[in-house]
Amino acid sequence: xxxxxxxxxxxxxxxxxxxxxxxxxxxxxxxxxxxxxxxxxxxxxxxxxxxxxxxxxxxxxxxxxxxxxxxxxxxxxxxxxxxxxxxxxxxxxxxxxxxxxxxxxxxxxxxxxxxxxxxxxxxxxxxxxxxxxxxxxxxxxxxxxxxxxxxxxxxxxxxxxxxxxxxxxxxxxxxxxxxxxxxxxxxxxxxxxxxxxxxxxxxxxxxxxxxxxxxxxxxxxxxxxxxxxxxxxxxxxxxxxxxxxxxxxxxxxxxxxxxxxxxxxxxxxxxxxxxxxxxxxxxxxxxxxxxxxxxxxxxxxxxxxxxxxxxxxxxxxxxxxxxxxxxxxxxxxxxxxxxxxxxxxxxxxxxxxxxxxxxxxxxxxxxxxxxxxxxxxxxxxxxxxxxxxxxxxxxxxxxxxxxxxxxxxxxxxxxxxxxxxxxxxxxxxxxxxxxxxxxxxxxxxxxxxxxxxxxxxxxxxxxxxxxxxxxxxxxxxxxxxxxxxxxxxxxxxxxxxxxxxxxxxxxxxxxxxxxxxxxxxxxxxxxxxxxxxxxxxxxxxxxxxxxxxxxxxxxxxxxxxxxxxxxxxxxxxxxxxxxxxxxxxxxxxxxxxxxxxxxxxxxxxxxxxxxxxxxxxxxxxxxxxxxxxxxxxxxxxx
Length: 638
Known about the structure:
By secondary structure, the protein is α+β, with helices and mostly antiparallel strands. Helix content is 47%, strand content 21%. The chain contains 19 helices and 23 strands. Helix 10 (258-284) packs parallel to helix 13 and helix 18 (544-565) runs antiparallel to helix 19.
């Protein structure tokens, strides 16, 4: 125990020294000085554990001495020494920051040393308590008042006893409207009305209330209301209050997750667009029937941009006609009686500018004032359909709502139109070339498809790179997504080669099963950046139907790996020994419980049917978190 005694009376100082150092004092260090300023200097140089302070010093007198000392030594306990046995002075000394009050000549050695030790420990406890309270108060301020989480405290009867500012901002309500109210009543009468799905909010929160559940989390969207509140996504959860005056109540949290949801929605939109474009490319190039291509264009267009009516308008010389339409309305341009494009100002405008046209109030737009057939619609978006820089038609989409479309929708429609243009061009070529022999027609269409699809995918790659540069919100996550879109678009080149091959069945039949599997592996590596290891042995000649059937099973198995497995490696083992052709597709993915997966799921039914059709044995073995193995065995028929 390191003690500093500040006492100007030599006799009192000597007496106190004897009392403190009496007996075993090996662990006690006692320093002395006669003036307050000297004591402060000694404290600065070597802080003691405690200060014994006389209130009557040459440079300071009375209770002010404590205050002066405390201003410089808030971290050291003080015990006051005085010659006056005055309880009032003692109380005032303690109120001014002293730990204790001792009267000179009224304490013995044991009592003095015990008082000093108790004062030190008591002071440390007070300091720890004070620090804990400060930390708690800071935490309360941070969590409840300055955080972006709305907080409400409910008592055991669901009465609202406290809310923070964030919650008031989220709901657009005043503190007076909430405090003292039954939260259940407020949900039914006021709170649920601020959400996009009021019934869903009420259902979820009452389920938690009725079940005394503190584990459920759910998301809800607040609808905007002028200057009262803004639109935002909130995530709700709660925690129980186990003790105190609000025991059996709950603390409810409404976290603002708007930024996260916007990023998720943006990611979802980009993923949907990428998938739609990819599916559209495969769908539009999988048929050359002109009418079927137009139908598929409108089917895929609905995944890219929302509409109530969509039209494919084709251009023949200087006239236009609606080749296909879908949705509301019955107005149409008879293909047998095309309309001069000059009579339709909105199409003439797009032909002149080679770019899209957008109107979010067509009733007041100069391009449509003379068209009564469109009075049921509020918004319009159109774009030219161009092939090799030549306009072959237009997309017209309409919405019954005003202010429906924006530049993002326009960019999507233009991207889609570039794919549709190639499909329309190829379908037209096919329609105009029916008189050629089937073999010549397929070979020529395969070449056209190869060239045009490669051009389309290159254009899509350039657009994806441009999107990466323009997108500036949640750059890390969205940028990564767009990079994947770019990779997917580039890898689709290899995938389209497979499609082109399948458009020529004779060419498919001419390839060996080994070559076909190698081509599938190449597509898999490019599309999914997934290592595919091939272990290909010598195979005997296979009947055409067996070869195609086994090829289709491998193709379906690899599709399952890409879509469902989250694998980081795939091995394909092919052998042909002792009259048995065997193929194994092995991945190290997440696997699945076979009893929990329907036969129609994961393409299992399709693979089983193909195996049965060629007389092959199909086995699928999967272990959760260890991977899946698909095995195909076919016995050579002698």
